[in-house]
Amino acid sequence: MMDIPNVSRRHALAALAAMTTMGSLPARAQAYPSKPVRVIVPYAPGGALDSVARLFSLRMAARLGATFIVENKPGANNIIGNETVAKAPANGYTILFAGAPFALNTALGIKEPYDVLKDFAPVMLVSSTPVIITVNPATPYRTLADIVAASKADPKGLSFATAGVGSMPHLVGEALRLQSGANLTHVGYKGSAPALQDAMGGAVPLFFDAYTPAGVQVAAGKLRGIAVASPTRLRPLPNIPTTAEQGFPGIVGEAFQALLVPAGTPRAIIDKLHEVALAVSREPEVRDRLVQQGYNILASTPEELTTYVHREINRWTPIVKAAGIKL
């Protein structure tokens, strides 16, 4: 047997090591995730988005046999949490569970340290929660036409309460005012809780918010539901007609819950995350739980999420300008 010189042997071993490493790369990609995945929620714990994020994180982790760690990073209209993901390594180990401000901040003209259309890669539009227009039960209003007519008849108009300036409910109220010519005045609170209390107490006649908390109080008889700003009625409140049914098809306002990752994340990882999230969205227990809490299950493709974000920006930018909303 011919003896291999030391130099040749070293070259051969190096080549063998290189081939071994190259051969292991696909296996490594298939092994994702091989360490804990951070799920960034740009809200404080306990809210609607946080609840959906924790539900999906738990189920996705179980399906992948991995650990998903939810991190709440609230503040600056979601910018702090969003920026965390935008500047994270594009390796699939940092995921954003985004909410409506992801698109609305752009429409509102807020300066952000990232570009929502360039610095993120879409995974899935998970669900949406439409705005519900409600009134205090002591008022005589039962339709949008009633509200519009009453606001025009009273020189002082009518006031509507929301969780804050620039929120989705605020924009829906402004869209109604602009499209109908109603004499409506916005009263922005610091959160849903105080706005809800004043609406139930009669301090303000109208309250615009999502199923939680507005719809829950409608079901309890403490508020009267007037309209759902969604293409379809909500299953928990089937007797409340949509805005379209009442002659305002253009007034659609829904907070959304979406999964995104940093731009540049390998498509194979995005596809894997989408596949798992889609499977979770089809679990009967998950669907029933979300639907009963006032969510619409959307479970989009990555491309559909991109289209949705573009549409939301284009939908609300002219409303913001026409209403003169400034933050």
From TrEMBL:
Annotated InterPro entries: BUG, Bug_dom1, TAT_signal
Keyword line: Signal
Gene3D superfamilies membership: Bordetella uptake gene, domain 1 (3.40.190.150), Periplasmic binding protein-like II (3.40.190.10)
Keyword presence, Isomerase: no
Pfam family, one: TctC
Signal peptide: 1-29
Annotated SUPFAM superfamilies: Periplasmic binding protein-like II (SSF53850)
Family: Belongs to the UPF0065 (bug) family.
Descriptive protein name: Tripartite tricarboxylate transporter substrate binding protein
Originating organism: Rhodoferax sediminis
Lineage: Bacteria, Pseudomonadati, Pseudomonadota, Betaproteobacteria, Burkholderiales
